[in-house]
Amino acid sequence: MNRIKKHIERLQYITHATKDKSIIDQVHIAVDAGIKWVQFRLKNADDDTFKQQAMACLEIAKRHRCTFVINDRVHVAKEIDADGIHIGKEDMSPRTAREILGPDKIIGCTANTIDDIIQLSNLPIDYIGLGPFRFTRTKEKLSPILGLAGYDEIMKKAVAHNLSVPIIAIGGIQVEDVGPLFQTGVHGIAVSGIISNSNHPRKDCQNLLKQIEAQSCPTV
Asked: Is residue 137 part of a domain?
């Protein structure tokens, strides 16, 4: 499939509503720490609240030249001119999302198995979020845990099928997991609490980026 090649960051940050920090505060923390990709996720909010919060966070991202992707709500991404969308397995069809957003916007999708990846690779998307790596409280309706062995097996099969969609590992990832995960061939990682809940987010972000930069370029 011919795709317009888009830049997919190797370190991505996903917002998660907590009692201690607002979504806007989380985005401020992430971009100030050096994050260049934010996925705005605000589950169970009504459309007006979601849009208002998304617009505020988009402005923060723009000031930091940060890619800003909306989780699930394609119509909001279209309306506020976000950089793209991330679609869950039970959400809108990627083909429909592409028709709405056009060829230049980023579309990412969620996968848990090699069969998911094979199916998604035939659709007009730009990256795949594969997970979860381990248990995480930031995700509702958690799919079966993959662990390092699961990633290794899936990525080997992806190479065997000559699949080229960038794969982003997600789910409870810590700094010490970066090297082993990248050795499986993933393109990047997505994190949340490790940045927003940190007492030293800039230092922790720099540690993550340092670990990522030390890895060889991904094969898939």
From this structure: yes
Which residues are annotated binding-site positions?
39-43, 71-72, 91, 110, 136-139, 172
Helix (H) or strand (E) holding 72: none
Length of the chain: 220
The answer, as to whether pTM is greater than 0.90, is yes
Which pLDDT score is estimated for 89?
86
Instruction: Assign residue 120 the CATH number of its domain.
Output: 3.20.20.70
Residue 26 lies in a domain: yes
Tell me which residue range forms the domain holding 71. 11-213
Instruction: With respect to residue 194, please indicate whether it lies within any of the assigned structural domains.
Output: yes
| Neighbour-count burial for 166-202, b at 16+ CB within 10 Å, e otherwise | bbbbbbbbeeebbeebbebbbbbbbbbbbbbeeeebe
Whole-angstrom distance, CA of residue 169 vs CA of residue 38 = 15
- Asked whether residue 218 is domain-assigned, the answer is no
Please state the residue numbers annotated as binding site for Mg(2+): 72, 91
**Cβ neighbour number for residue 165 with a 10 Å cutoff:** 22
pLDDT, tens only, 144-161: 899 999 999 999 999 999
Helix, strand, coil shares, percent, the chain, to 5: 40, 15, 45
Tell me the C-alpha distance between 73 and 50, whole Å.
9
As a whole number of angstroms, the distance between CA 106 and CA 85 comes to 6
Q: pLDDT digits over 7-57, tens only?
A: 999 999 999 888 888 999 999 999 999 999 999 999 889 999 999 999 999
